[in-house]
Write a structure and sequence with these properties.
Helix 6 links the parallel strand 4 and strand 5. Helix content is 35%, strand content 18%. The chain has eight helices and eight strands, in the order E-H-E-H-H-H-E-H-E-H-E-E-E-H-E-H. By secondary structure, the protein is of the alpha/beta class. It has one domain: Aldolase class I (TIM Barrel), CATH 3.20.20.70. It is globular, with a radius of gyration of 17 Å. The longest helix is centred in the C-terminal third of the chain and has 17 residues.
C-alpha cells in the first residue's frame, strides 16, 4: 500500500513551503511527494478563471524542479510529478524520475501520453475525465496503473461510490474529498495506492487546500494503512 502526497500547487509559489511540505510528507508516512509541472499560460484558461494569477504564480521553473528533486532525495522520499507538456517531460527525465503521473485532464492528450510512454518508465493514470468502460490503451512495455478518481473539487463523500469500485482493476484512488474517510475506506476495500492533496494548513490561500490532508491526517492515514497491512 502506497501513499502519494500530492503537493501540487499547495506550495503557493514559495519554494521554502515546498521544501517543508516534502519533509512533512516524509515525516508523516507518505511514500511519494508529488508536484505538478506545467506552463501555466498554456495550460490554464485566462477567461472566467479566478485562479489564473495564482496558477501562474505556482508554475515551477526548470531550476525549481532540480531543487525539489534534490530535496526529496535528501528527505528519502520519491519525487514524482504530473507533467502537462512534452518539453517538461525532458526536465523530469533529466532529474531522473522513477515513474510518471498522468492527470485526469491529460488522459486524452495523445501527444503527451506518447512522449511519456517513450520514456519506458511506469505510468500512473487518473481516470476522473475518462468516461469509457474500457481503460485507455497506452502503447508501452512499462507497467501502467489506473486510479479511480472523481473530478470534483472538493468531492462530496456521497459522490465517491467506493462500493462500486473494483480495486482488482484499479490500482488505487486519487481522492479529492475533505478528510481521510474516503481514502481509508479505499485502502480497506483493496486499493494499493492512494493519492491525495497535502497541505500544511487547510485555511491557506489557494484552490486545493480545503480538500487536502494535513500532516495530522496523513499520520492517521499512515497508521490505518499500517494496521491494514498487518492484517493481510
Amino acid at each position: 500500500m502506497e501513499i502519494i502526497a500530492e503537493i501540487g500547487q499547495n506550495h503557493n509559489g514559495d519554494i521554502d513551503i515546498a521544501r517543508r511540505l516534502i519533509r512533512e510528507a516524509k515525516a508523516c508516512g507518505a511514500d511519494v511527494a508529488k508536484f505538478q509541472v506545467y506552463d501555466a499560460r498554456s495550460l490554464f484558461p485566462q477567461e472566467n478563471n479566478p485562479w489564473y494569477d495564482y496558477n501562474c504564480t505556482t508554475e515551477l521553473s526548470r531550476s525549481h524542479v532540480d531543487e525539489l528533486a534534490r530535496e526529496c532525495e535528501r528527505a528519502g522520499i520519491e519525487f514524482m510529478a504530473s507533467v502537462f507538456d512534452t518539453e517538461r517531460v525532458q526536465w523530469l527525465e533529466e532529474v531522473g524520475v522513477q515513474r510518471y503521473k498522468i492527470a485526469s485532464r491529460s488522459v486524452h492528450d495523445t501527444e503527451l501520453i506518447a512522449a511519456l510512454a517513450a520514456t519506458g518508465k511506469p505510468l500512473i493514470v487518473s481516470l476522473g475525465m475518462w468516461h469509457n468502460e474500457e481503460f485507455p490503451e497506452i502503447s508501452t512495455s512499462a507497467p501502467v496503473e489506473f486510479l479511480y478518481c472523481v473530478s470534483k473539487y472538493p468531492t462530496e463523500l456521497g459522490d465517491v461510490h467506493l462500493s462500486l469500485v473494483d480495486f482488482e482493476r484499479y490500482a488505487g484512488f486519487s481522492d479529492h474529498t475533505i478528510g481521510i474517510t474516503a481514502p481509508a475506506a479505499a485502502f480497506a476495500r483493496g486499493a494499493r495506492m492512494i493519492e491525495k492533496h497535502f497541505t500544511l494548513d487547510k485555511t491557506m490561500y489557494g484552490p486545493d487546500h480545503t480538500g487536502s490532508m494535513t500532516p495530522s491526517e496523513l499520520r492517521e492515514l499512515h497508521r490505518i494503512r499500517t494496521e491494514l497491512q498487518q492484517l493481510l
